Amino acid sequence: MVPRWKWKGAEAKALAEPVSETVSELQSSFARTEASGFLSTCNVLLLVEVEQAELLDRCCFGRPVVNSEKDKRWVQLSFEEAFFLFCKLNCIKISVHGRSLEDELDLWRSMRSFKPNFAILYKAYSHLRSKNWIVRSGLQYGVDFVVYRHHPSLVHSEYAVLVHSIGENDRLKPWSDVHCSVRLTGSVAKTLLVLYVNGQVNKENMNLPLCLEDYTVEELTIRRWNPELSREDESRT
């Protein structure tokens, strides 16, 4: 799929500011301070400096929360975003019920207690983020995530992502589900990307972040077949 840039010059701006370099800038900025987040049952609220809030926005982590503070900003993070910042980038600290979570094991168990399928979704999220895709919620399109080549202000999202794991859900079992998903994503100019996250993981190991190493991710794109594009050129006959 060809990227659909939102305005003239957006592609040049994206090439001049790679996502990987912005993420490195984010890590350097957060290493000089101690940004702290508060874990709730469905998200993490992060309190940061104004400059850090701008960097989070440039990297597309979280969404700003309106507040009256002048020198501080609140940012709402999904569980996947918060764990990625905490564990992968070592950028933030997180507490729950006034208790600071000292390591990734504490945070992992807390998040899984609130979100049973967290392991599967985080594996998919980190898989895409590691490839420098911008990953956002796909709730408005009926999928798990949507992914962008660069910041959403520059380019439209290219893929609508469904995360599937054997035994976790029954999505895409009947062909009618596949047809509905393909038609919906096609109507908004996106390609359906299914991430199959599978592995031989014991139930006991699910309580440990090390279980992520036992998962594999298989990518499958599904597009609607257009018979008009498959016909031979009648002028040749």
TrEMBL record:
<dbReference type="InterPro" id="IPR006677">
    <property type="entry name" value="tRNA_intron_Endonuc_cat-like"/>
</dbReference>
<feature type="domain" description="tRNA intron endonuclease catalytic">
    <location>
        <begin position="118"/>
        <end position="199"/>
    </location>
</feature>
<dbReference type="InterPro" id="IPR006676">
    <property type="entry name" value="tRNA_splic"/>
</dbReference>
<dbReference type="InterPro" id="IPR036167">
    <property type="entry name" value="tRNA_intron_Endo_cat-like_sf"/>
</dbReference>
<feature type="domain" description="tRNA intron endonuclease N-terminal">
    <location>
        <begin position="36"/>
        <end position="108"/>
    </location>
</feature>
<dbReference type="InterPro" id="IPR006678">
    <property type="entry name" value="tRNA_intron_Endonuc_N"/>
</dbReference>
<protein>
    <recommendedName>
        <fullName>tRNA-intron lyase</fullName>
        <ecNumber>4.6.1.16</ecNumber>
    </recommendedName>
</protein>
<dbReference type="Pfam" id="PF02778">
    <property type="entry name" value="tRNA_int_endo_N"/>
</dbReference>
<dbReference type="InterPro" id="IPR011856">
    <property type="entry name" value="tRNA_endonuc-like_dom_sf"/>
</dbReference>
<comment type="similarity">
    <text>Belongs to the tRNA-intron endonuclease family.</text>
</comment>
<dbReference type="Pfam" id="PF01974">
    <property type="entry name" value="tRNA_int_endo"/>
</dbReference>
